[in-house]
Write a structure and sequence with these properties.
Elements: E1 3-8, H1 10-19, E2 26-32, H2 44-57, E3 64-70, H3 74-78, H4 83-86, E4 97-100, E5 106-108, H5 115-123
Parallel strand pairs: 1-3, 2-3
Antiparallel strand pairs: 2-4, 4-5
Helix pairs in contact: 2-5
Length: 127
């Protein structure tokens, strides 16, 4: 089964990747809105993408990692100084965004609720 990790906020994200060792396995990172106390989110695309991503994770390489990163609430995300927007390693411009960590593979916004695209990102090899 895919090893799942959850990180909330930019500083926690930085700390996580300081010590994280994937042992050569694929790593996918989902940058998404932070759900409120009621479990709801300000991000419509995130809400639509979450079930698709969860379903496709079940079909993905069991020897891989999936890191769900909650970027914050709407004011945090909309701040032009948001670390996720400014960090050259993340370059997150739209939510949700899924990346193959360390590679060019990336899905953004509405692409993240397309099962075929998510499956391809999770399962295609780098070559």
């Amino acid at each position: 089964m895919v090893q799942k990790h959850y990180v909330e906020g930019y500083n926690a994200f930085l700390e996580f990747f300081k010590t994280f060792d994937s042992q050569g396995q694929k790593v996918h990172v989902l940058f998404s809105s932070t759900p409120g106390p009621d479990g709801d989110t300000f991000c419509t695309y995130c809400k639509r993408a979450w079930p698709v991503i969860d379903e496709e994770l079940e079909k993905s390489d069991p020897q891989s990692h999936f890191v769900k990163v909650a970027v914050g609430d709407k004011p945090t995300w909309k701040d032009p100084e948001c670390g996720f927007r400014k960090d050259p390693k993340t370059k997150v411009r739209v939510l949700p965004t899924i990346v193959r960590w360390g590679g060019p593979q990336r899905l953004e916004g509405e692409q993240c609720d397309k099962a075929d695209l998510v499956n391809m990102l999770f399962n295609d090899d780098d070559d």
